[in-house]
């Protein structure tokens, strides 16, 4: 298949190399001209993926229109808060007739847009003319790029209301080390993928403060409860949050040394300001901006998300991590399920 990839960061490169091994023809778009030149000259991205060499057969371009030429599938892997402007640029450079020939769009970016509180598939449908949900798949699960590139066994879920399209992605993305399941709850998969990054920031704060396994286990369990509560309100299936995109990705993101969101939490716990912590990151920690959008969403639709609220206040209102933990522990007593 001809596959175009919006985004040449670590996850975009990992998916490109996985798909290249399957024999697909790939064109990747990179936003920054200087990075595009570097990738084409050296075929490496040492700051994010040291030691990984990108095959010459994978085309890398700064011309966004080129990834749509003869593309059957478009894979979206740009940071969530730049998704809309990226799609606007794509529309400006591409004829509608080209979009109409695309069989499916795969959303692999995770987050909630701050300005609109929309999920990434909603942004996609709003910006690509005549695009409907039945031509979109959300791809998510416990899948750090570093491990996918090393051929470590990984499982993800392809979610769509169009099961034929989900199965097409399953067939064309699956390898002996990358197993793809299907799901029909695209909204639930996207919500889980977004909120777990916020919980992972909290996990990093816990680690940075020197707390133990009791605390981490409680955080992840109550984090899943928080994600389910949001999902119920927004029409998602609760079972989705017990699957790969929910508890699977949450566990991985909260405990992994590769987790940029967990690392962000550690930096905050060390006493750095948000600006200082961001300055030490080489990759985007989606949980930071998602904390802001998820908090706003919880306020808008009227549900309690205690962990998300405390992370928002710690990141954006200068609340100390110690005080945030205390306030979580001293909330009014409740039954476990509410």
Distance between the termini: 47 Å
Measured by DSSP, the beta-strand proportion falls in 5-15%
Averaged pLDDT: 96
User: What is the CATH C level class of the largest domain, in words?
Assistant: Alpha Beta
CATH architecture field of the largest domain: 3-Layer(aba) Sandwich
What's the number of extended β-strand segments? Answer: 8
Question: Which helices and strands appear, and what pairs or packs with what?
Answer:
Layout: E1 2-6, H1 10-21, E2 25-29, H2 33-42, E3 59-61, E4 73-76, H3 83-93, H4 96-100, E5 104-107, H5 120-127, E6 136-140, H6 145-149, E7 154-159, H7 163-173, E8 178-183, H8 186-208, H9 213-233, H10 244-255, H11 260-269, H12 274-279, H13 286-301, H14 306-316, H15 321-329
Parallel strand pairs: 1-2, 1-4, 2-3, 4-5, 5-6, 7-8
Antiparallel strand pairs: 6-7
Helix pairs in contact: 3-5, 8-9, 8-10, 8-11, 8-13, 9-10, 13-14, 14-15
């Amino acid at each position: 298949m001809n596959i175009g990839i919006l985004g040449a960061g670590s996850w975009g490169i990992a998916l490109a190399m996985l798909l290249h091994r399957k024999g697909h023809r790939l064109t990747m778009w990179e936003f920054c001209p200087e990075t595009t030149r570097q990738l084409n000259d050296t075929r490496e991205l040492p700051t994010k993926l040291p030691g990984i060499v990108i095959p010459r057969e994978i085309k890398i371009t700064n011309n966004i229109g080129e990834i749509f030429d003869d593309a059957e599938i478009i894979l979206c892997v740009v940071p969530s808060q730049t998704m809309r402007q990226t799609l606007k640029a794509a529309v400006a450079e591409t004829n509608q007739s080209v979009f109409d020939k695309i069989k499916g769009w795969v959303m692999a970016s995770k987050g909630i847009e701050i300005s609109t509180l929309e999920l990434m598939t909603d942004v996609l449908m709003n910006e690509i003319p005549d695009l409907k949900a039945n031509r979109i798949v959300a791809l998510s699960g416990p899948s750090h790029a570093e491990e996918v590139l090393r051929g470590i066994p990984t499982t993800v879920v392809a979610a769509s209301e169009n099961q034929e399209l989900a199965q097409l992605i399953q067939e064309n993305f699956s390898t002996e080390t990358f197993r793809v399941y299907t799901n029909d709850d695209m909204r639930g998969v996207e919500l889980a993928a977004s909120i777990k990054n916020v919980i992972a920031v909290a996990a990093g704060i816990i680690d940075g403060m020197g707390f133990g396994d009791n605390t981490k286990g409680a955080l992840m369990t109550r984090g899943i409860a928080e994600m389910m509560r949001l999902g119920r309100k927004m029409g998602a299936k609760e079972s989705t949050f017990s699957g790969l995109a929910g508890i699977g990705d949450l566990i991985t993101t909260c405990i992994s040394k590769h987790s940029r969101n967990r690392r962000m939490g550690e930096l905050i716990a060390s006493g750095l300001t948000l600006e200082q912590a961001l300055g030490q990151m080489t990759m985007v920690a989606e949980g930071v901006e998602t904390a802001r959008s998820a908090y706003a969403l919880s306020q808008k639709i009227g549900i309690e998300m205690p962990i998300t609220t405390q992370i928002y206040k710690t990141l954006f209102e200068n609340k100390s991590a110690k005080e945030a933990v205390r306030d979580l522990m001293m909330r009014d007593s409740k039954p476990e399920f509410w």
